Structure formats: structure tokens, C-alpha cells
Amino acid sequence: MPVHVAPINSGPSARVCSLSFRNNRREAAKRAIAPRTALRCTVPIPVSTHIRSFAARKESHPELDAKLHRLQEQVWKASVRDNAPVPPLLRAYDAVRDELKSLAPDSRRSVLPSTRDSFQADFKDALRLVAVARLNDNEAGILKTMVDDLISLGLLGPSEAHSIVLHALAEGNKPKAMYQWLTHVCQETTLDHWSIYLDYVVLERQSKGTFHQALDAMEEEGCPPTPELCINLLRKVFALPEGAPAIALWVVSAIRPHARSFAPAFRDFLLTESAKHFSPHDVAALSAAYPAEHPADDLNDPAVQHANEIADAWHLYGRGAGAGALQDRVRQGFKPTPEALTIILKDKFNIEDVIFWQAQLGIKAEPVVWAQLVSAEAKRNKDDPFAALAVFYRAQDAGVNPSYTVADVVLGIMCSADHGIAVPSEELTRSAYGIYLDVYNWYCRDLKEGQGPPRDVCLVPPGQETVAATSVFDTLNRVLSAAPGTWPLALRQLKHMRRLRLPLDGPSFIDWITRLIRTAPNAFQAREVYLIARTFGGAALDGPGCAAVLHAILLVRGNGNALPLWREFLFVLERMRQDGAVLPADVHVELLDCLAAVGSTLPRRLDSEDAVAVQASLAYALDAVRTSMGTGAGGTRPNAASRHALLRALVVARCHDAAMRTWHQMLVVGDADAGSLAAVLPACLSANAARAIVSRARREGITMNREAWHAFLHTLVRIGAPGDARKQVVEYMGRNGDTVEPDEESATIVLRGAVERSGLLMALKDASEIASAWPTLHSVAHHVLSQYADADVRSTMKEGLFAVMEKADAIVETWPALSSAVSETTQECALNDLRVALEDGGLSHAMDRANAISKAWPALKPVVLDFLRTGGQATVRSRHEELSLENAAHITSTMGLEG
Q1: Which end of the chain has fewer CB atoms at under 10 Å, N or C?
Q2: Position 259 confidence tier, pLDDT thresholds 50, 70, 90
Q3: Where is 25: in which H helix or E strand?
Q4: pLDDT at position 141
């Protein structure tokens, strides 16, 4: 509510008048917000708060003081009048708009930018409330006037304004006004505008004719519906709580004539998404309303034709007609097959229909049909997850052989959390395991005909061992993945696994074991899993299995404490050695890389007991892996990859002394090479240590390769010796018998390090020396440092343009090769400075600023002159429309900048 401004002649009588007026104003406000009229909710007016904020700024804009106080009173009087046909907020909007238009252009530009966002919010509210209000025909043109005013004032863009109006009209239930706005008012309609109207027509259940009319109008306006628009609309339809199938059907029927150019992916979306919400019957209706352009079935095949005729007769006239059509086609030579049964059933999955047609055709449905049947039953009974289980056993009772295809679907339903429960209950989990055992016992039935296999002995048919093992362990893995809470049941299943007599050397068994280990509650139970599996797994846990198991143990986190993890890791590693398990060289590399990844997660400073303990146990684990390397396969030495991985892991784990000792041991036994030199250099903590290691390697006859050189340069830069790194590139690389010439990476390492450690100017001197010694590196040095120079010059802009030019002169003086790059940056900074001067002080101030820049830096005079010829003339035209281009050029020439 606006604050009352007391009169100048204050006194007792004035105070009484003020109180009386204040009381009258309160009574008027109460009448204004009374619930007699729906539009009273617009008071108090949000615009008034910004008017008060304008009035408070009279020190900055004294010429606006009187006008803003008068505007405040106008808004207040307009808001408390009772029987006005136009909403009070509209009158407030008109008052503010008229006052803004009446302000001088200089004053408007000085006020409007500081409160642009606030005015936009208030005018959007005004536009929305006017559109929602019940205006008569004479007042309906107010919307168009408001939109034109807001666009001309620059407060709203055309597209945003039209969107606000359409949303408000939809909120006010005005479909006719929305259609007229789209077809008669909007100059350029977009898909977003039409999407608002289509959403209202469909979701508010308007007539089908209205929807058809909208689609036709879109075609006429040159804005035809797109697949994305239709997909978004259908998603909203699918989410409706009631009547969604019927609405989706007539929407799809209306879209079909306009969707000839749609890709097949639209039909795939339609059928896939509708199957998640609708029944198979409704999905079939949508499929018929939007048929495929190129059906997958070969309609020229007589068997396919007969099957489709039977299906059509059944779907249209019932089972009796379908059975009659079947008999007729059998007389014509139709031979029932499982594929024909699938065509007849199509999308209609009902257990009674499946059993009926199996009996009619004398065949059994394919597993995919039963899998789809189980899925459909689960969707129809989302609150009862045992419905799918009932269908499964019903199929068994009907003589259908269960298969892993069906069991996979049932297990996915039973072990998922899609039935309103956070975690599958133990009952559901036991049922899932029961299904697994039923399917397995069927699949691995006794070889003797007519005898069922005992529960504790399951014999696999010859030739099916690998298939059976893969299916069983994949099933167990999926159950454990979908329901981690079933880990105790899975452990009991593992203990009885030997009774199944399956081959245990496949990847599916290793995957299941590693998942059991990773999901173990703690590292001790993870070790128990390994020991149980080892008793009957045999060679499955040798070789690659070792790496999988050890990786899994490394991923166990028991109560946030890593010490038990390392103890169990070392225990399993030692047990593998005792059992004679041979860890190949690539397994060593994987393990060491994994340990290095664990070490990289350590904090930068080991300032806590946990961090110190983890680092110590990690060092012990690395030492154990090092001693295990080469203990198998006749005690052969580890290969180069293993040695390099060991050094990398030690460096990452901050075991610098151990890394140095290992490096010297490699030198003694002759295993050191350029790769190990590159791996150990990051462990050096001083430039002298790095130079000493490189000198020792050269004395031992080790020739540095490119990787070693890069590691050496990185180390020198990291420890704060970028000048030494530059000296190595200029004086030693590629010289005195060295065969590795510096490449782009070498120059980049040195120059980036110089910038970060010594600053840009020192890096420029280094670049000059590198480019002089190796001319081929001039381009990369220019590329690297031009980016830093550009950023450095721009960062100086906050200190002023003169500071920018001084910085640029210093850069060019240090390395003249960057003159062109720096020149472009300084031109941009100068133009930005002129733009600010033009916006703040007008054209005359910008002219003065341009004269100062041209006198200080004559090289910038053409750029400044060009900017003023374009920007200055545009400013003159915007302020004085009666001036011609010649007058603008005359003003420019009078300021001394014309040529």
C-alpha cells in the first residue's frame, strides 16, 4: 500500500486531517478487497511498491520527484474506486505506462535499466490478470494494446508475451479467445504457442472437432505438428487419471492424417509407452488407429494370410467365429505352427485365450508368448506381485514346459521394487528362488524318461552343461542385483551349489561370486564367500578369476573402516599363493592400478588418524603385491608393465621412500628402463633429487624416451623450478647425443608451469628462448601464451583502459610475436569502454572519451572512428528522428574525429 506523504504545513489541525484521511483510506481499502468482486484480489497493487522505490531515489533523479508522487496518487485513486468496469490493476498499469511514455528519453533510460526486472514481473502479472478477467467485447482489445505497449517499451519479447496471454486465457477457460489470438493476433506463431492451445483442448476434454480445427489451422499457418509436439502431448494424455485410453484414441486418429512424414519411431513410442499405462486391448486399438506403413509380416505368405484372417475373425466376432475360420483354413491346407499361433494372438494376451488356441491348434505357444502373457498379467495386477507367479504355475499345470525366457520375466517381476514396496520381502524373494529351482529342475531333468530329478541331485543333459550354468548363474546374479537384501539367501545358495553339479569355470560363475563379494556386509564375510567358492570352484578362481575376486574385495566398505579391507585383501592374496593360484602379469597390472586408484582418493594432507592408517595399510598391501610378483611360474621376474604399475602405485600412495628403494633395486638387478624412470620421477621432492635420478639412469646406460622427458619436465615444474625445465628443453633435449627433440607437449609443460609459477612476463621470456632454439615450437608457444595473455589483459580491464594498454605494451615489448593477438584484445577493451561511455553519458561523453583514446594510442583511431560512425549515428537517429544521416556525420566531424 502506498505510503501517505504528509503536507508541508504540519500542525495539530493538519495531523487531524491526516488521521481522518488515513482512516477513510483504510475503509476504502477494505471495500476494495471485499470478496464481492473477483477482481478485488488484485489490490494492493504490486506496481506501487516499485513506485515508492522510485520516489526514494529522488537524490539520484531529482527531476522525477514530483511526477512520481503524482503517479503514486493516481495509482492509489484508481485502485480504490468501486464500480469501475476495468480491473484496478489495469488502471494502475495504464498510469505507469503513460507516465513512462511521458518521461524524457534520457530520464527513461536512466530509470528503466535499474528496475527492469521488477517492472517485467509486475507487467507480466498485469497482463495475466487482465487476460483471466471477464472482459466484454469492447474491452477485449485491451490485451492486444497491452502486448503492443510492452513490446514497444522493450519489457517483453513477442514470443514471451503471447505465451503469457495464452496461458492466462487457458487459465480463464477461454478456448475461443485462444484460437482467435493464435489465428488473428499473433504475427508469427510457434509450436510452443500451439502446444499451449492443444494441451488445453485435449486435457480439458474439448470437442474432437476443435482438435481437428486446430491441426488444420496449424497446417494453414505453416506450422505443422511435429513428432516431438505429438509425443509430449501423448505423454500428458497417458498420465491422465481417468479416460486416458479414449482420449488417446481420438487424439491419435486426428494426428494420423497429419503424420505422414513421421518416422517409424513415433509408432514405436506410441505402442511402447501406451503398454505401460493401458491394457493390451487398448494398445491394440491404438495400433489399429495408427497402423504401420510397412508391416513386418510377409503378407504374401499364405500361412501368414490365413493366420491374420483367423485373428481378425476372432477379434471382431469372438472365439466362435475365430474357431470357424480356423476350420475353414485347415481345410484349405493351413498348417498350425507356433509362429501362426503368435500371429493369431498378436497383442491380446490372456491366459484363457492362450490355452484355448493351443487346444484348437494342437500346438504349444512359444516361450515369448508366455513371457508376454506373464508381463501383461503383472501389469494388470500391479498391487499383487503373485499374479505373475500364478500364471507361471497355471502354465505348468496346462502342460507347458517352462523356459528360462519365462523365468527371466517372472524373476524380474518378483525381485523388482515396482509394486509399491521399497525392498522385496523375504516371501517374494523365496518365491523367486523357488521359480529358479523349478525351472532348473525342469531344464536339468533326469536322463531317464518319466522320472523327476531329486532335489539334491540335478543331472544336466549331455551337451547342455555350459548353457545351463550360464542361465543359472545369470539368474542368481540378476536376483542379487535387483534385491541386495537377499544376500543371506544367496550365501546359503552358494553353500549348496555343489549339489547342482554344474561346470564352474565360466564367466557367469565368476560374475556371481564377485557380486556376492562386493555386496557383502563386511570384508570378513567377503573372505568367507571366497573360501566357500574356492572349495569347489577350482580353477575358476585362478588367472582372471583372481583379479575379479581381489577387485571385488577392494570395493567392500565395512562400516567406513578400510583397515579390515586390507587385512582380508592380504589374507586372500596369501591364500591364493598357498593354493598355487598363478596371477598372470596382466592381473598384477590391474591390481596395482586398482590400488593406485584407491591411493588417489587420499586427502592432500594426511592430517587425520584414518588417513594415516589407510595410507600405511595401503603401503603394506603394495609391499605384499610386490613380494607376490614372480613367486609363481618358476619364480620368473615380473614384466615391464608390472614393474611400471608398481612404481606408479607407490608414487600415488605417497610411498616415496619405497618407490626410491624399488627403483634402486631395479637398477641393481638390471630391470630399470626408461618406463620405470618415468614412473619414479614424480616421487622426487626436489630438483636435485630429480637431476640425480636422471644422471644415475644415464650412467647405467638408460636412454630417456619422450615419456621420461615429459615426466622429468613435469617434476621440475611441480617442485617450483620452471627455469630449470626451460633450460633442459633449450640446452639438453635433442643435443649432445640425446635423440628426443622437444615436441609440442614439452613446450606446453614448460610454458604453463612458467605462467603458474613465475607469471606471464617470465613465461614470455622463456617462450622467446624456446622459439629461438627450436623454431618449430614457435606456433605452439604462441598458441599457449596468447590465451594467457588475452586473459591477463582482460583481467586488467577492471582497473581501467589505461592499465589495459600498459599491460599490453609490456607483453608486446617482452615478446613482439604476440602483438597481433594482444592488439585484438585491446581493441575489444577500447570498444567496450566506449560503449559504457555512450550508455552512461551519451554521445558527447563518448566523443570526449574517443578523443582521449585516439591521442593516447593513435593505432586505435580507425577502430574508434568506425565505432562512432556506426554507433554514434544510430544513437543520433534514436534520439532525434528528424535528423538525417548528414547531420549525424556533421556532429561526428565537429568532434574532431572525421578522418
Answers
A1: C
A2: low
A3: helix 12-32
A4: 67
Residue 82: what residue type? D
Instruction: Report which of residues 108 and 690 the model is more confident about.
Output: 690
Count the alpha carbons within 13 Å of 438 in the hemisphere toward its beta carbon.
Answer: 20
Pairwise CA distance, residues 481 & 274, whole Å: 28
- b/e sequence 651-677, b meaning 16+ C-beta within 10 Å: bbbbbbebbbebbeebbeeebbbbbbb
Q: How distant, in Å, are the alpha carbons of 278, 405, 424, 485, 486 from that of 429?
A: 28, 19, 7, 9, 7
pLDDT band for position 115 (cuts 50, 70, 90)? very low
Q: Which residue has the cell 548353457?
A: 467
Q: Are 861 and 877 in contact (CB under 8 A)?
A: no
* Cα 497 → chain centroid: 42
Query: CA–CA distance from 715 to each of 85, 721, 722, 755, 777 (Å)?
Result: 81, 9, 10, 16, 21
> What's residue 520's pLDDT?
80
Confidence of residue 449 (pLDDT cuts 50, 70, 90): very low
Burial of 152 (0-12, 13-18, 19+ CB in 10 A): exposed
CA angle, residues 364, 369, 375, in degrees to nearest 5: 140
The three three-digit cell numbers of residue 464, written as one number: 547342455
Among candidate residues 870, 862, 781, the one with its CA nearest the CA of residue 823: 862
Q: At residue 230, what is the residue type?
A: C
What are the pLDDT digits (tens) for 624-666? 677 666 554 434 567 788 788 888 888 887 888 888 888 888 8
| Per-residue cell: 123 | 507487467
- Distance from CA of residue 12 to its chain's centroid? 68
The closest alpha carbon to 317, from 305, 309, 306, belongs to 309
Say which residue, 69 or 861, is predicted with more confidence.
Answer: 861
Is a pLDDT exceeding 70 seen at residue 421?
A: no
DSSP assignment letter at 3: P
Let me know: does 306 contact 314? Beta carbons within 8 Å: no
C-alpha 31/C-alpha 312 separation (Å) is 70
- Nearest alpha-carbon partner for 793 in 769, 757, 761, 765: 761
Cell reading at 593: 592400478
Residue 282 · residue 274 · CB < 8 Å: yes
CA-based Rg of the chain, rounded to a whole angstrom? Answer: 41
What is the pLDDT confidence band of residue 828, given thresholds at 50, 70 and 90? confident
DSSP 458: -
* CA gap 679, 641 in Å, rounded: 11
Q: Which DSSP state fits 157?
A: -
Q: How many residues does the chain have?
A: 899
Which of these, 35, 36, 32, 13, lies nearest to 24 by C-alpha position? 32
**12-16-17 Cα angle (round to 5):** 115
Which grid cell sits at 698?
A: 644415464
